[in-house]
Amino acid sequence: MLKQTCLTFFACLIMTGTAFAAHPLITDDAGTQGKGKWQLELNAQYGRDDNKGIVQHTTPSVCALTYGLTDPIDIALGVPYIYTDTDNSKTSSSNKGFGDLCLSVKWRFFEQDGWSLAVRPGLTFPIGDEDHGLGNGRVTESLFFITTKELKPWAFHANLGYIRNDNSLDQRTDLYHVSVAAQVEVVKDLKLVANTGIQQNTDKHSNTDPAFLLGGVIYSIYENFDVDLGYKYGLTTPEVDHTILAGLTLRF
């Protein structure tokens, strides 16, 4: 049961919890904050997964802070807090606490004619309790290649990523991620977003990878203050069946 909790949580965390994308999107864009500017994100989600009578409710929340070191370079720090509850016909269990701390740097190295290209290396540090499904037990590394194309009022994003999932949980260590997203400003300050993607399963005994389809809205209450809401549907069995995502973003 604990192993299943860990596998489900980390699939959720890597795909959604700390990607530093424009929430509720999972696919990141190539944009940066600009030198000396900050961004604070507070995101939460509720996921329900039913796997052969074992029902798991996962409620991670993430506080992420991003700072513009230079115009094309951002540094971001995120800390998730996780609550999981697992039930079957005979037993139930729950765990809660902080997950592993995540640090990433995004460098936008190309920008021309609406095209932007960036790379985002990242690390996670094992501050979460792996014995209770809240951490990986070891430092992990990742590298994502990001591309964005803007065609006002549309924007399109694509991510290709590799995660070195070093862990003490007997999970697969080499994970690959592919995802694409689109957004459109339908009226002033209101954007509709869509996202789909797939990532290699952390369960080394499974040949089925988690895949998702997501839709949502982002509304700018003020120029530097956004709220968002999204729904993510699991396209394959390893992905969480249903997830509601909500967040707010403040830039200053």
Describe the structure.
It contains one helix and 14 strands, in the order H-E-E-E-E-E-E-E-E-E-E-E-E-E-E. The N terminus is likely disordered. It is mainly β and 252 residues long. Strands 1, 2, 3, 4, 5, 6, 7, 8, 9, 10, 11, 12, 13 and 14 form a 14-stranded antiparallel sheet that branches. The longest helix is centred in the N-terminal third of the chain and has 16 residues. Strand 10 and strand 11 form a beta hairpin. It starts with a helix and ends with a strand. It has one domain: Lipocalin (Beta Barrel), CATH 2.40.128.
What is the gist of this entry?
The protein has 252 residues and is mainly beta. Helices cover 6% and strands 61% of the residues.
List the helices and strands and how they pair.
Layout: H1 2-17, E1 38-51, E2 54-58, E3 61-70, E4 73-87, E5 92-98, E6 101-112, E7 115-125, E8 140-151, E9 154-164, E10 174-187, E11 190-199, E12 211-222, E13 225-234, E14 242-251
Antiparallel strand pairs: 1-2, 1-3, 1-14, 2-4, 3-4, 4-5, 4-6, 6-7, 7-8, 8-9, 9-10, 10-11, 11-12, 12-13, 13-14
